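#struct-pred

JT: dropping the chains for the assembly here, can someone run the whole complex?
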Amino acid sequence: MNPGRPGLRPRIAVCGPSECGPETARIAEEVGREIARHGAILLCGGLGGIMEAAARGARAEGGLTVGILPGSSAADANPFIDLPIVTGLSHARNLVLVRSADAVIAVEGGYGTLIEVASALKMEVPVIGLRTWEVSPLIVRAATPAEAVKLALERAR
Amino acid sequence: MNPGRPGLRPRIAVCGPSECGPETARIAEEVGREIARHGAILLCGGLGGIMEAAARGARAEGGLTVGILPGSSAADANPFIDLPIVTGLSHARNLVLVRSADAVIAVEGGYGTLIEVASALKMEVPVIGLRTWEVSPLIVRAATPAEAVKLALERAR
Amino acid sequence: MNPGRPGLRPRIAVCGPSECGPETARIAEEVGREIARHGAILLCGGLGGIMEAAARGARAEGGLTVGILPGSSAADANPFIDLPIVTGLSHARNLVLVRSADAVIAVEGGYGTLIEVASALKMEVPVIGLRTWEVSPLIVRAATPAEAVKLALERAR
Amino acid sequence: MNPGRPGLRPRIAVCGPSECGPETARIAEEVGREIARHGAILLCGGLGGIMEAAARGARAEGGLTVGILPGSSAADANPFIDLPIVTGLSHARNLVLVRSADAVIAVEGGYGTLIEVASALKMEVPVIGLRTWEVSPLIVRAATPAEAVKLALERAR
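RK: done, full complex below.
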């Protein structure tokens, strides 16, 4: 875990695939809303799918949204990103995303999300899972977006 | 250059050494203040010296400050950073900092700053120089903090 | 998959934890020996445990051993590495290791190895597993070191 | 400087632009030849121009050539690279190249080479210059390829 000094707003990363169906998007959007309602900063990979849905939700609640992009252009960011971080590092940006977070919420997810989950486990960043990879007992299961964000903020301490 | 979509707040990176004297700190702080007064986001390397002075200035004017850190802990950030990005990439984070900016203002600087200036020149991110490396005619010289920020914002377009 | 041009010697990465018991070390060493016997180059993370055992085996058969290190010093490499690549990237070096390989052999492994397995799956580098993570049907199971290297070389094409 | 343990073959990086004229290519090729004649390993960025010429020279003398590539495919390597390291890190690979070397020889060069020279100065890797950037008294000037390699190997200790 990596909390930084007291007084910093919590940073919660939402990880998940860049394409998703409407039901999963609804879940990710609600995760983003809950993050913003609690005054936390949303970090994500900045692209589409889960990342865009979560950023849309956080934006709708007036939250700050950060997109840590794999490519070399800020124009890759989805329209709900306030602050693009342009890494040019391809998939290695997944590790920057995870390290920068106080806690990670993984929503479903393919192999890219598995990189993030594994990185969080390796770096001891708390992971909350919503219908995601089951590769460790350290991943805390949540049943709803509200519960996921509550668990993330508790563990972000 | 790397502007992203219209509507994003400009992101201006301030680069310079992690130790500096009071006169240089005063200049960097004023650069940070000017960035915030213009509604832009301050990016920096998140550590001490020029980075801390610029963040202190931006914070004093209510601006948003982002520290793109080389190490593996958010606790490395100086006390004026609102959003630490924790890369774990050592000096390779200098390139992430530069890529994420619409323009770079270099204030004095040693070899780390030269990595940033060279990276900006390579990636075609505009560079404004305040008493810094003179390695290219593409570096636009500024005489004062206010002029540096004005030039950076003009070129950030 | 990422074969490069015809004529290059195959590059096989061996991934696994930096600490391991003697039985696992014996397996990793035999994997290294088999890689060298087939004229392939051994890539690994350059540190101890599985990485050192594999390098020791490859070295014993006259093979070339490459250690892609997370830290900032070549002195971190185990004594059987011929060529240290010093990344300074911390765990992000795991992705450089995987990308550089024609195939990956994962031997047991913790969360660091899971980063590598997930990265290989994401980047479509073939993965052969010896008692490792079971997170995808794409991971080809091998029962012995000889079988693992045979499968890796077949898929490296 | 970053020597690693005794017994390792020296690793000399040759840095320079990906396009160059025949006279500069001749110089870079001779640098590569000299590196191989001294039993050292040639590291380079793996692409064209200076990198290709140096690798061609080292290969012609039976040396080992390593290309630390910015992109995501080993197929990007020039035909004289024995071992491609595929970083996917874009220009951040320049820092991996420099860190992995016992000494750097810069041949002419644009802004990419300046990233490498600045990185070497920052990381205290010795830099030998052949008609390159003059940004520090720490850069040791050489008049000929043979002198450049001699100086690099002396400082690599």
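JT: nice. Strands of chain C lie at 11-15, 41-44, 65-69, 83-86, 103-107, 127-130, 140-141. The first helix of chain C runs from residue 22 to 37.
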